[in-house]
Design brief:
mainly alpha; 82% helix; single chain; Growth Hormone, Chain: A; 2 domains
C-alpha cells in the first residue's frame, strides 16, 4: 500500500470514527431525554425504525451516485447531513425538555431530524467503502474494508464514556459536539482527501444499478443481513438476559452488561485491527471461521450458566463478527466490476439495516416467552449461515 493511500485511509478512519462516537452517544442519551420530554419507549423505537426504513432504500442510491459524482463529494455530503441531523435533533430535544413545545409536536420533529441522517447521512458509508475499493488491489481489499467496520466499532466503544462526560454540561451537549465533529471531518475530507483515482479518470454516464438478487453478491448480502440481525438481537436483549439469569439488581445489571459490551467490542476490534491487518486472511476463510465462532457463541449462551461462560460467548461473538463483516463486504466488492463498487457498498449498507430492524423485533418477542429464545433464534440463523458459507459455490470462489 502506498504512502498516499495510507494517509487517505487514515483520514477516512478518523472521520468514520467520529460518526461512530456520535451514534453511540445518541443511543445512550435519547432514551432518558425522551422520558423527560414525555415520549414513550415505543415512540423512541419508531424514531429509529422510520430512519432505518428510509436508509434501506436511500443507501444504495447514494452508493450508485458515488460511482458517477465521485466518492469524496458523497462522503462530504453524508458527513454534513449527519452533522445537520445531530444538531437538529439536539435542538428539538432541548425544545422538548424546556417545554417550549408539547411532546405531541416534539415527537414528529424528532423523527424528521433523524430522517435527515437517513436521507443524506447514509451516503458516507457506501462511498467510503467504495473509495477504499478503488484504491486497493484485490489482495489488499479485505484489510482495507475492515478499516471501515473497525472505525465505527472503535467509535461505538469510546462514545458512551465521552457522552457521559459531556452530558455533565447538559444532556444535549454530546449531540452538539458530535455535530461539530462531523463538520470538522467534512472539512478535513474536502481539504485533504484526494479523489479516487478511478473515479477521477472517468465516470460512467449513468450509475450501474445492482440488484439485491444478483447472483454474484446475493450470498454475501445474506451473510451480512444475518450478521446484523443476530448482533442487534444480542445487544437489545443482553442486559435483560444477564439480569434474569444471574439474578442481578438494576445497578449490577448495568455493570455486568457494560463489561459484556466492552468484551464484545474489543474482541471485534482485535479481529479487524490485528488479525485481518496483520495476517490478511482470504474473505472465504474469514467468513467460514467467523460463522463457526458466532454459532459456538450462541450455544454457550444457551447451555452456559455462569458469568465467565457468558464472557467467553461474547468474546467468541465479537471475534466472529469482526471476521464475517469485512470478509463478506470484501468478497462482495471483489465479485463486481470497478463501476459497481458504489452500488454494492450501498446494498451492503441497506441490508445491514434490515437485519438491525427485523432481528430485535423477533428477538424481543421470543424473550417474552423464554429468556433463551433469542439465543436459540440466533443459533438457528448462524447454523444456516454455516451451511451457506461452507457449501455456496459463490463463496467457495471468494479466495482472493
Amino acid at each position: 500500500m502506498t504512502a498516499t493511500n495510507r494517509r487517505a485511509f487514515a483520514l477516512l478512519f478518523v472521520c468514520l470514527l467520529s460518526v461512530g462516537v456520535g451514534q453511540s452517544m445518541l443511543f445512550s442519551i435519547l432514551p432518558p431525554a425522551a422520558r423527560e420530554i414525555g415520549i414513550t419507549p415505543f415512540q423512541v423505537s419508531t424514531i429509529f425504525a422510520t430512519s432505518a426504513f428510509l436508509w434501506v432504500f436511500v443507501s444504495p442510491w447514494w452508493g450508485r451516485r458515488s460511482d458517477v459524482s465521485g466518492r469524496r463529494k458523497i462522503i462530504l455530503i453524508g458527513l454534513l447531513g449527519y452533522a445537520a441531523s445531530m444538531a437538529a435533533l439536539a435542538s428539538v430535544i432541548r425544545i422538548g425538555i424546556e417545554r417550549w413545545l408539547p411532546a405531541t409536536v416534539v415527537y414528529p420533529l424528532m423523527i424528521a431530524a433523524r430522517c435527515i441522517f437517513a436521507l443524506v447521512g447514509s451516503g458516507t458509508g457506501p462511498a467510503s467503502q467504495a473509495y477504499i475499493a478503488d484504491r486497493t488491489s484485490r489482495s489488499e481489499r479485505t484489510a482495507g474494508v475492515a478499516l471501515v467496520s473497525a472505525a465505527m466499532g472503535l467509535g461505538e466503544t469510546v462514545g458512551p464514556g465521552l457522552g457521559a462526560a459531556l452530558a455533565s454540561f447538559g444532556i444535549v451537549t454530546p449531540l452538539y459536539v458530535a455535530s461539530g465533529m462531523a463538520v470538522v471531518s467534512a472539512w478535513t475530507i474536502w481539504t485533504f482527501l484526494p479523489e479516487s483515482e478511478r473515479v477521477a479518470e472517468g465516470r460512467p454516464a449513468r450509475p450501474p444499478r445492482l440488484r439485491v438478487g444478483d447472483r454474484r453478491v446475493l450470498p454475501f448480502l445474506a451473510v451480512v443481513t444475518a450478521l446484523q440481525a443476530v448482533r442487534a438481537t444480542t445487544i437489545i436483549t443482553l442486559a435483560f438476559f444477564l439480569q434474569d439469569t444471574l439474578h442481578l439488581d438494576a445497578h449490577a445489571t448495568v455493570q455486568y452488561s457494560g463489561i459484556g459490551f466492552v468484551v464484545l467490542a474489543v474482541a471485534g476490534l482485535f479481529s479487524q485491527l490485528v488479525i485481518v491487518q496483520r495476517y490478511r486472511p482470504a474473505p472465504r476463510a474469514m467468513m467460514r471461521a467467523g460463522v463457526v465462532l458466532m454459532f459456538a457463541a450462541f450455544l454457550l449462551f444457551v447451555f452456559g450458566h455462569t458469568w465467565s461462560i457468558y464472557l467467553l460467548a461474547l468474546a467468541c461473538l465479537g471475534l466472529g463478527m469482526g471476521l464475517v463483516r469485512p470478509g463478506a463486504a470484501a468478497a462482495a466488492s471483489l465479485a463486481v466490476s470497478p463501476d459497481e463498487q458504489g452500488s454494492v457498498a450501498g446494498l451492503l449498507g441497506g441490508v445491514s439495516v434490515i437485519g438491525n430492524v427485523v432481528g430485535p423485533m423477533l428477538g424481543t418477542a421470543l424473550y417474552s416467552f423464554d429468556r433463551h429464545g433469542p439465543h436459540l433464534l440466533n443459533a438457528t440463523i448462524m447454523a444456516g449461515m454455516v451451511v451457506l458459507v461452507w457449501t455456496s459455490q459463490r463463496i467457495r470462489r471468494a479466495h482472493v
